[in-house]
Amino acid sequence: LLRDVPGITLLRRFASLCAVIFGTNGGVQDVLRPNVMGCFGGSSSKSDAEEDKRRKEANKKIEKQIQKDKQIYRATHRLLLLGAGESGKSTIVKQMRILHVNGFSEEEKKQKIEDIKKNIRDAILTITGAMSTLVPPVQLQKSENQWRVDYIQDVASSPDFDYPAEFYEHTEILWKDKGVQAAFERSNEYQLIDCAKYFLDRVATIKQLDYTPNEQDILRCRVLTSGIFETKFQVDKVNFHMFDVGGQRDERRKWIQCFNDVTAIIFVTACSSYNMVLREDPNQNRLRESLDLFKSIWNNRWLRTISVILFLNKQDLLAEKIKAGKSRLEEYFPEFAHYQTPSDAVIETGEDPEVIRAKYFIRDEFLVSEFLYAVS
């Protein structure tokens, strides 16, 4: 979804939605002027003339470089990723790196191993910890696994935990327990990272001493974004600078620092979050928070001249939830019960009709203004 601002150019892939031509304000300013020295009452000496010539040549080079830098600056599109926490903004940045910046080096992949291990630990800690707090609580299928739960909760929760072999053994066995699986199925009732299943399914691979993360592992790895991170890439000879900013409420105060000279705002929302609440506010639905946040950005008078792209993310997870039928969309958004799929909906071969209806309903929830229009 794009704000209708003249100058938007469609480029290939996701980056193709982002190019907007910068305006210019004339030529090079008088940054440096030749400093010509002369002698009173007569012509300059030969040495002074040579010095003057060198200065002029140096200033010409500087002026030329300034002109070149300005052209590069004006030809660079600055994309600001905004959205609520855990909407997938950082994953988009990583995808851009893989597609357009030669991916991740072997050293960078190795550095991600610790984060991936932490994702596994956080996942099994959270699921087993929630079993007794859910209403009604969930019991282990095999009571003899209780000592493994105790290990996870008491030992693996240590800040300086070093991931011994027994940790992976306990995790693999617990993950196969039907009681733990039942608790996982109710993960919308507590806070669980959405890569939990992916990494818990891959423990046997990740625990190996020679393990190196693949691209999918890096994309799935969850690390809290705090601060502002810039990624530079090029698509079809067009330069892009993408800025990733934390989406939690306490991080949003930093957004104002990024609005200067922004070409476009890419607002990312997690479609699958319709049945989840915020980490920072258990009384607020995540998708409704995203809707409110998008509206506030759209209606901000200081951002009227900035193009806006709405990126509806995590549709694969949305499809899984809709097809499972355990968290019905109408239970969280009652208006969905009477919603009809638009006649112009683009339907992929074999796609579930209910999934299509859900996708378009969420899209249309964001189409709250006649000034918005959809771009396939």
From TrEMBL:
GO term, biological process aspect, one: adenylate cyclase-activating dopamine receptor signaling pathway
Entries under InterPro entries matching the protein: Gprotein_alpha_S, Gprotein_alpha_su, GproteinA_insert, P-loop_NTPase
Pfam families: G-alpha
Protein name stated in the entry: Guanine nucleotide-binding protein G(s) subunit alpha
Annotated binding of Mg(2+), by residue: 90, 225
Entry keyword annotation includes Nucleus: no
Subcellular location: Cell membrane
Binding annotation for GTP: 86-91, 219-225, 244-248, 313-316
Keyword presence, Zinc-finger: no
SMART domains in the record: G_alpha
Binding partners and assembly: G proteins are composed of 3 units; alpha, beta and gamma. The alpha chain contains the guanine nucleotide binding site.
One of the record's GO molecular function terms: GTP binding
Lineage: Eukaryota, Metazoa, Ecdysozoa, Arthropoda, Chelicerata
Family affiliation: Belongs to the G-alpha family. G(s) subfamily.
Keywords annotated in UniProt: Cell membrane, GTP-binding, Lipoprotein, Magnesium, Membrane, Metal-binding, Nucleotide-binding, Palmitate, Transducer
Function summary: Guanine nucleotide-binding proteins (G proteins) function as transducers in numerous signaling pathways controlled by G protein-coupled receptors (GPCRs).
Biological source species: Ixodes ricinus
Domain of life: Eukaryota
PROSITE patterns from the UniProt entry: G_ALPHA (PS51882)
CDD domains: G-alpha
GO cellular component: a single term: heterotrimeric G-protein complex
